[in-house]
Write a structure and sequence with these properties.
By secondary structure, the protein is mainly alpha-helical. It has one domain: Cation efflux protein transmembrane domain (Alpha-lytic protease prodomain-like). 81% of the residues lie in helices and 0% in strands. It is built from seven helices and no strands. The protein is elongated, with a radius of gyration of 18 Å. It starts with a helix and ends in a 6-residue tail after the last helix. Belongs to the TMEM163 family.
């Protein structure tokens, strides 16, 4: 059976399903703790380096944190087996995707108008490198759990983690390429992430599985 078929099935309250639900909640708690650190360090590094992509990446960590909180809420107490809770969580995940895009576009416009250019920062490089390595592991694990749980909220959170890793790669590339004059890579990464966030928000709201 393909993933898109599995995710449309209503979850059964089996012992295996409940273990998967606890695993999804635990991963979200771990992610939430790291995202608090990531956001603070990313914003500090981005502001010092005038990097719109790095600032946007730090803010996207807050959006991801909202996604993690939603999944923790979804799989706590009586909501664990509630179809209504899953529907609410899925739409909340969609809103968290949409929350990021307007800021990124506005900040890109401001920095371009002000003539700011990103400069390399050791703190930014260290934090983004760590996320580039760790976030794909978390994201893929959550997407697998989301398919097992038939939870689009969980797969959506996993997609946000993968977006975080992709943006970390783009930020690192932008900081390096800026040293050879390719300053436009940094804002281009921010705009690209904004476009992806809007698209993923619509997919989550409409109930698509976010398995691409």
């Amino acid at each position: 059976m393909v993933p898109d078929q599995r995710i449309h099935e209503r979850p059964a309250a089996s012992a295996e399903w409940l273990r998967a639900a606890r695993a999804a909640r635990s991963l979200s708690v771990v992610t939430l703790a790291w995202l608090g650190v990531e956001s603070a360090l990313g914003l500090a590094a981005g502001l010092s380096a005038h990097s719109v992509a790095l600032i946007g990446w730090g803010l996207s960590a807050l959006v991801e944190a909202a996604g993690s909180l939603i999944v923790v809420w979804r799989f706590t107490g009586a909501r664990t087996l509630s179809p209504n809770a899953e529907s609410t969580a899925r739409r909340a995940i969609a809103l968290s995707f949409w929350a990021l895009a307007p800021y990124l576009v506005a900040h890109v416009a401001y920095d371009l108008d002000a003539g700011h250019r990103a400069v390399p920062t050791v703190l930014g490089i260290v934090v983004t490198t760590f996320s580039l390595v760790s976030m794909p592991v978390l994201g893929l694990a959550k997407r697998r759990l989301g398919r097992r749980l038939a939870s689009r909220a969980t797969t959506g959170e996993g997609t946000q983690n993968l977006m975080c890793a992709a943006m970390a790669a783009g930020v690192l590339a932008g900081l390096w390429l800026n040293t050879v004059g390719w300053w436009w890579v940094d804002p281009a990464v921010a705009v690209a992430v904004a476009v992806v966030a809007v698209r993923e928000g619509f997919r989550a709201w409409r109930g698509h599985a976010c398995c691409h």
